[in-house]
Amino acid sequence: MVEPASAGARLDRWLSDRLPDLSRARLQALIRGGLIRVDGAVLKAAHRLRGGERIEFEIPPPPAETLAPESVPLSVVYEDDHVLVVDKPAGMVVHPGAGRSLGTLAAAILAHAPTTAGVGGPRRPGIVHRLDKDTSGLVVAAKSELAHARLATDFAARRISRAYYGLVWGVPLPASGEIVGNIGRSPINRKKMAVLARGGRAALTHYRVLREFHGVAAAIECRLATGRTHQIRVHLSERGHPLIGDPLYGSARTGRRAKLLPEAARAPIAAFARQALHAQTLGFAHPISQEFLEFRSELPNDIKILLGNLERF
User: Does residue 132 carry a catalytic annotation?
Assistant: First the structure.
């Protein structure tokens, strides 16, 4: 219970005074993750207390400082002494985080290439960029510190070429263009990102429509000029064209659009189990030789089946 004398104190500062074994950064992460609640509500770290509130919290054990290798099968597209390109399946988390500590791509890379241990950090060996758990496709990892540093610099400088294949509800207009909008944590749902009128980080997505399906859905290609969390998903949803199957950024219009499908096609399309997004193309200058490398991944079977259902109606 918050004592009256603490009225006006920030939530994270109040907690820090009472939980001295936890850093402010860790407390703020727990608040963002919804593990600390004020009168049952998830609020911001900067929330000012009034006094009299009931604070409830769950403190999970801190993650281990090192990552154990796991012999998880990897689809290796390219490998040499410095880089590793893999085709990540949907459902695999890139590195350990809240709610997932086993079966990660990072642990599989560590087992496949032990020299990645410590490259880029003990919990993210070799990891330079990430894909969402349920986004499939190409990821490049570094096998040496020099390769990691140079690839990270190229990502930051937007010198990496990335193209994503997606299936969305509706047909974006114009048929090609760009979506601009700063992305940051949603003020309404802290588990989501959102396009913000103020704050956030600049984000730019280029898109083009590859084909449309009777005005109900479309296949599109997206190219990232920036790399914000959930960028493509947020930008497309903001435009009113969420990815088919997206459980977090789908809109109320999704159900109405699904009803426009013939009954035979409606159920398998509306029930697609993840966001229909695939990191199809990845191009970069090799961090050592500077030779430009480009890789293309075949669409996974679940997206092929979804595409087939859209083509049949």
Answer: yes
